[in-house]
Amino acid sequence: MQKPAEVKRDWWVVDASGKSLGRMAAKVAVKLMGKDKPTYTPHIDGGDYVIIVNAAKVKVQNTAKVYTHWSGYPGGLKEIPFHELVAKKPVFAVRNAVRRMLPKNLLAKKMLRKLKVYESDKHPHAAQQPKPLAI
């Protein structure tokens, strides 16, 4: 069993341009959870840091994808198509896809803090020397 003090974290960078959103989010979620490591322990946050660049250039298979949000009031259902959401907030669309693939528990919040998403190809994490993640 892995202990929190023994966790070794690496940095990975993913170029999202032309990548399928679902496939990329699944691979990133595995890295954030640490399931690809031999020391994986379900109750310990042992995952790596992941940087996603070019979030505005991600593609989706289903072109009719719609995000919905309900305010809680009658008639308060809001719908926004995927292409409009990516045009307005590409970081939210990618981050939301990864968030929904993480476990639904208290560790998910800690795992999501290790995800850094950027709209363009520039990021301020060059000092960490991230390795490219092949997807």
The geometry reads as globular
The largest pleated sheet is described as: 4 strands, parallel
Mean pLDDT: 95
So, the CATH homologous superfamily? Ribosomal protein L13
- What is the chain-wise order of helices and strands? EHEEEHHHEE
Beta fraction: 15-25%
Number of DSSP-assigned strands: 6
Which residues sit in consecutive blocks of at least 5 with pLDDT less than 50?
A: none
Topology-level CATH name: Ribosomal Protein L13p, Chain: A
Count of DSSP helices?
Answer: 4
Classification by helices and strands: alpha/beta
Radius of gyration from CA coordinates: 16 Å
The tally of structural domains comes to: 1
Structure write-up:
With about 140 residues, the chain is of the alpha/beta class. It has one domain (about 10-60, about 90-130): Alpha-Beta Complex (Ribosomal Protein L13p, Chain: A), CATH 3.90.1180. Helix content is about 25%, strand content about 20%. The chain has 4 helices and 6 strands. It has helices at about 20-35, 80-90, 90-100, 105-110; strands at about 10-15, 50-55, 65-70, 75-80, 115, 130. The strands form 2 sheets. A 4-stranded parallel beta sheet has the order 5-2-1-6, covered by helices on one side. A hairpin with a 6-residue loop joins strand 3 (about 65-70) and strand 4 (about 75-80). It is globular. The two termini are about 30 Å apart. The mean pLDDT is about 95.
